[in-house]
Amino acid sequence: VEEKKVLLIGWDAADWKVIHPLMEQGKMPVLKSLVESGASGNLASLDPPMSPIMWTSIGTGKTADKHGVLGFTQPRADGSGVQPVLSSSRKVKAIWNILMQQGLKTHAIGWWPSHPAEKLNGVSVSNFYHHVTGPVNKPKPMPNGSVQPERVAKRLEALRIHPQELTGNHIGPFVPNAESIDQSKDNRLSSVAKITAECATVHAAATWVMENEEWDFMAVYYDAIDHYCHGFMKYHPPYRKGIPRELYENYKGVVEGGYRLHDMMLRRLVELAGPETTIIICSDHGFHPDHLRPMALPKEPAGPADEHRHYGMVAMSGPGIEKDKLIFGASLLDITPTILNLYGLPVARDMDGKSMLAALTTNKPPAMIDSWEAVEGDSGMLDTTEQSDPWAEQEAMEQLIALGYIDPPDENADKAIASCQRESKYYLARTYLHKNDYESALPLLEELFNEQPEQVRFGVRLANCHHMLGNIGEARHVTDITLENWENDAWDKHQKHLERAREKGEQLPDEIASMSISDLHRMNRPALDLLQGTLLLAEEKPDQALFHLQRAEEATPQLPALHQQLGHTFLKMERFQDAEAAFFKALEIDPDNAPALHGLAIVYLHMRQFKEAAEAATRSIGLLFHNPQAHYHLGRARFRVGDFEGAERAWLNAVKQAPGMRRAHEQLLKLYRRFLNNPAAAQKHQKFIDELIVESSNVSAGVESGSLAPITLHDPNAEKKTSIAAEEVVTI
Question: pTM for the complete prediction?
């Protein structure tokens, strides 16, 4: 193990879209200094975009199907109900467990989920620690299991801050006119105080540990930016129509205040860490601060996650890090492998991430090990039998409910457990979909859909899964059922709305009171047209698809996913200039749209503009590295310009991410035989094609085509909004 100190800082929901303007205005000078002296870039997020899942992936380098954290809650072992997800839910070692086994002194502060605190060789503080409740003069004791070892528990308990301890001087930077707000009618100030107090509590624990304990590695997680954004991003400038002016004027500075607070805390962390420490700051996802903010949230479990942007951020500085370097193609899964590489330790083959070599001063690839799980020795991990404080668990559940992350559990324990298991199964299916492992996702989604066909989100993702596997008939069947359920649900909600209005004696406009099913259908037509167009394209009927998609475009011209689908339709019709214009329109709406850039690469390949194709594919991969189709098309473009080594790298990435991609193996076979004179490599790929790839391989017809986009369905009433992936969210 190399002598090294690494400080890993988690800022939940931090987004370059907010950070860059603040740095340019001189309002985040500490982070700006780290960026200029180190490496920074986007981190591709994961789906499902749930914080416990993603922060566990950051800490392990593995996806949810491997690490075992599948949502915000889990059933109790005794069958008495559900509880928040715990540290014992994680089935694999986190980076601090691995480093502890290598004799390094490790600390972990506030990571989510981390309760009960693990028994590390340093200090472990759980994600229950910073929630201080009860009267300000007699707050509830710190939950059992919040801090390990016991010798520091009392000291850290004394550092906890109650929200009511904050004064106007603390709240003023967030809400300058706080004193004029009538708190009997508006309780938002208490929310600002709670978020800020909890953030300061985590910071107090982290800085105390850094000042008083020896350490080689330390991880500290702050959830405050995410909470500031969920509560107050709607008031963040610029002003949006529909937001009450008074609320906008009162709370427009909260999000900026949250970011500036984090920069001030960062200054102290940097001072305590010292110049010999490598500092890594990252977020699990972003948070739309601009025109891509959704105007309404879905009424479904974890609905607030719809506000998340599908790119987090990373900034690294210190020994071993390149200076003034941009990072491309990184994901959340790359943090742990990169830290292992910094310590000179091997990266495990069963990790889904990779080391960010381009950001390191030594570009030497790390050594490899099959799995860190097989390494023996005390890692500090808890076993699944370790219990925590049930009262603290209940308070944590109540906070998750208040934030909108979960629905209140059913009072019937069996029903609550069944609902929890259903959500976990759904999140596991989404994990497989995100990994392009459609065959693993399919039986899970079929089970969910058969059990609850009225759940539109289950039907949409099942249809998408069939779609990507090339089962177009099944996709059509599931979609027809889903559409019928969706329209019936919309009609039922309309009737309930009318009934509630009558009970209250409200007078509704005639056009609403007299609305018929056909009227409701016309209201929903843009979303229905988009769905029909997607399916017709999959059914090889591009002319009919174009009719529906263009009609949807007339009604809703600001949907990136719609223009992506138009681009693929024009591609199918060989109208390449129209396809180019459609993908450009999607990028005009969302410049960080990796699928639209990939679509452009395909267009330019058809137009024999190979240099432009390579540039578009490279930009797409720089935003979203795990996309075997984009790597395949990049390889084609590189090959066409005579860059055979570049083509080899791209196609090897494609088959690494999708081993069953026959055409990538065939291109590599041709490349090794005719251009790179590597008969041994050619033989390897020939053997793979002959023995392991069959026509019904696990690479779907949809994925192989490179021209199908996922099916999307959206409820324009925002009562039940569903999506396939973050970049495919459709808002009518």
Answer: 0.86
